[in-house]
TrEMBL record, chain B:
It is a multi-pass membrane protein. The keyword Disulfide bond does not apply. This is Cytochrome b. It comes from Mnemiopsis leidyi. It holds the Pfam family Cytochrom_B_C.
Length: 342, 361
């Protein structure tokens, strides 16, 4: 309210015409005046109304900022920035890491998280051989129909999508204290911060700091999670998986592997993309180069040409100054004109 | 065909002094044609049922590299279309290309139609953000009389349903052809009026399209193509919204609903006030203000060039984009209030300028 009063007072002090022409549109008034008289030169008259308005705006924002209280549970810790090699240009995934990541997913995360957009067969020749994947898929049972039309359970096939741990959303919620474990296929691109956020989240579990409320039953404290209290307890510890290739299973190593795997599941065509991309980009770049050269050869002639309007009989003098050659397109016309004159 | 080409390449005359920024138009045409082609190609992959569309889309894109690339191309091109549209508009401000009112108006119509197309297309995957964006946009209809009835008619149900999605799909398919018609009008009138060439009646310094500009255009198109291929193959997810990779959930409202970047500046105006009706008016006002700014400018100052005005407008454009992109929670809400304040001042100044300055000059 006071702000409005102040503004109106300041506005009243300044005469309207001066206000708009001088303070807000200095250039216009300058040009206008310059065209009428020769009294040119910039005229920036300070208009206290305008300055006051701006000042009032800044002050009010400052005051409002002072009033605001920062409440800790509305913010979350910014995730770290890690170096992910597969995110660089023209780099592919580390397929050994993908294989390890699949192992982590299968042994740890699959207890709660589904992968409902992903086929078993997409793993073939990326993380596993065809036979290995067939074996793994056959470990899970899928609903099917037998020859007599009865509902049965059949072993999984390589064409199936990866199984979900819970039958439906309600069961998933019940099993996890009301928090639904999200699907992990697209989790990497579905979260702001991608791999960096996931790494910070999976390795960032902490003791509850003093002054914060204790987490409820089945919750854990994680400063990187929005709202701090996450429904997923810490999953990754040192040596929580045994790698088959002998890599030492530190917590950070496990997190890195599983995140690389999740990154691949959200973008399974990255290696293909880069392969095609290298061909396409290099040919397009070559074409660009050729057309650039063509364009320059055409353009230079036009750009460096000069047009002269000369009185007949004066071409020579211009030629002497080196501006135009005697080999002029208009020479014939000139000659004809000069003949006519004679 | 040969005659047409001949007319286009040899007889169409254009001034020699136009520079690189005049190529945005040709890039836009190029993008539009490719959008049409990729759109037609990806029609067969789409399933317009509410429950299945997202699942179907993701499964298809993981099934085949072809469809994945098609989707990435279509998305990236749509974003680049808007990017170059803005370049084109800003160029027209600074080169006084908008003197021709008909060309300007068809241009604005094209922008609005392509915004609509982009919105329809954005809704089609029915991810979390699509769902809530369509709820927000459709509910704008409720400000007009009988809006609720129209809304229910469009929904085909009491909320967004498979029928709505079919309707959106249909509209997304049809409206590009409206854009095509508008494009021909825009292009025809532009060339009939010899663009903004100052020497309109002097055919002294004109040249034909063929020997020079066809190579300039080809060069620009290939340059664009190189960068474009880089985006689609190397950083495929550049223009994808992370919030739209979740399947929609009718029970969970996202903390922060925001449109794509190119709709942020009218969105900021819409959101700047509690009242929906005034918000919609502000939105329309801001759009018209931005796009008719050359006309407004020449009315106000009777000058054909007034760069300061347009420079300020471009700054304002980016500010509005920034405001629109922020969630309306504590630290940002103050920023929103501040720029809301500035917006009101701007509108205030604008009307008073109209009142006072017009009589002054």
């Amino acid at each position: 309210m006071t702000l409005i009063k102040q503004c109106s007072r300041l506005l009243a002090q300044s005469s309207p015409r001066n206000f708009y022409t001088r303070a807000l549109l200095p250039t216009v008034s300058h040009w206008r005046r310059g065209s009428k008289s020769n009294n040119s030169g910039p005229k920036f008259n300070y208009n206290y109304g305008f300055v006051g308005l701006l000042g009032a705006a800044v002050c009010s924002v400052g005051a409002a900022l002072n009033d605001g209280q920062i409440s800790a549970d509305e913010l979350e810790l910014a995730h770290g920035h890690m170096h992910w090699e597969h995110k660089e240009w023209f780099k592919s995934y580390d397929h050994k890491a993908l294989r390890r990541g699949f192992q982590v997913y299968k042994e740890v995360c699959q207890a709660c998280h589904s992968m409902q957009y992903f086929y078993w067969r997409l793993h073939v020749d990326v993380t596993h051989t065809k036979e290995e994947i067939k074996e793994i898929a056959a470990e899970y049972m899928y609903p099917g129909v037998d020859d007599d039309g009865n509902a049965i359970e059949r072993p999984g096939d390589i064409q199936d999508i990866m199984p979900a741990p819970y039958e439906n959303e309600i069961k998933a919620r019940l099993a996890n204290n009301g928090a639904e474990p999200p699907d992990l296929t697209l989790i990497n691109i579905a979260r702001e911060g991608n791999e960096d956020y996931l790494f910070s989240l999976l390795t960032g579990y902490e003791e509850v700091p003093a002054g914060q409320a204790e987490p409820a039953e089945g919750q854990a404290y994680n400063p990187y999670f929005h709202g701090y209290y996450i429904g997923m307890a810490q999953q990754l510890y040192n040596e929580s998986v045994d790698y088959e290739d002998g890599t030492i299973p530190y917590q950070s190593q496990i997190a890195k592997d599983v995140i690389q795997y999740l990154s691949w599941t959200s973008h399974p065509w990255m290696d293909e993309s880069i392969m095609y991309g290298m061909k396409a980009i290099s040919s397009a770049a070559l074409l660009t180069l050729f057309t650039y050269i063509l364009m320059r050869t055409r353009r230079n002639g036009f750009r460096s040409r000069q047009i002269h309007f000369t009185v007949p009989g004066h071409e020579k003098s211009i030629a002497k100054n080196g501006n135009v050659s005697n080999f002029s397109k208009y020479k014939q016309v000139d000659d004809a004109l000069s003949k006519m004159k004679r | 065909m040969y005659v047409l080409l001949h007319i286009f390449l040899i007889y169409a005359s254009l001034p020699l002094n136009i520079n690189f920024s005049y190529n945005f138009g040709v890039i836009l045409l190029f993008i539009f044609i490719f959008l049409l082609i990729t759109g037609l190609m990806s029609v067969i992959f789409y399933n317009s049922s509410l429950e299945m569309s997202f699942y179907n889309l993701i499964l298809h894109s993981f099934n085949s590299f072809f469809y994945f690339t098609l989707r990435v191309i279509h998305n990236t091109l749509a974003n680049l279309f808007f990017l170059f549209m803005f370049f084109h508009i800003f160029r027209s401000w600074f080169f006084t290309s908008s003197n021709n009112l008909f060309v300007l108006t068809t241009g604005i119509a094209m922008f609005l139609v392509s915004c609509a197309i982009a919105f329809f297309g954005y809704c089609l995957p029915m991810g979390q953000m699509s769902y809530w964006a369509s709820i927000v946009i459709f509910s704008l209809l409720t400000v007009i009389p009988f809006g609720v009835l129209i809304l229910l008619y469009l929904f085909g149900s009491f909320s967004i349903s498979s029928r709505t999605l079919s309707l959106l799909f249909l509209l997304h398919f049809i409206t590009p052809f409206v854009l095509l018609i508008l494009f021909f009008l825009h292009y025809n009138y532009l060339h009939a009026s010899l663009s903004s060439n100052t020497f309109k009646n002097d055919f002294l310094d004109l040249t034909s399209f063929y020997p020079l500009f066809i190579f300039l255009d080809a060069f620009i198109v290939f340059l664009f193509l190189t960068f474009f291929l880089f985006i689609i193959f190397i950083s495929s997810y550049l223009f994808f919204e992370s919030a739209n990779f979740l399947a929609f959930n009718t029970l969970v409202t996202p903390l922060h609903i925001y449109p794509d970047w190119f709709l942020l500046f009218p969105y900021a105006a819409l959101r700047s006030i509690d009242n929906k009706l005034i918000g919609v008016f502000l939105l329309i006002f801001i759009l018209l203000f931005f796009f008719y700014s050359p006309v407004i400018n020449s009315l106000l100052t009777r000058l054909t060039h007034f760069y300061t005005f347009h420079t300020v407008l471009i700054y304002l454009f980016f500010l509005l984009m920034f405001v629109g992109s922020n969630p309306s929670v504590y630290p940002y809400s103050l920023v929103v209030i501040f720029f809301q304040f500035i917006l009101y001042i701007l509108i205030f100044i604008y009307f008073f300028l109209l009142l006072f300055l017009n009589e002054t000059f």
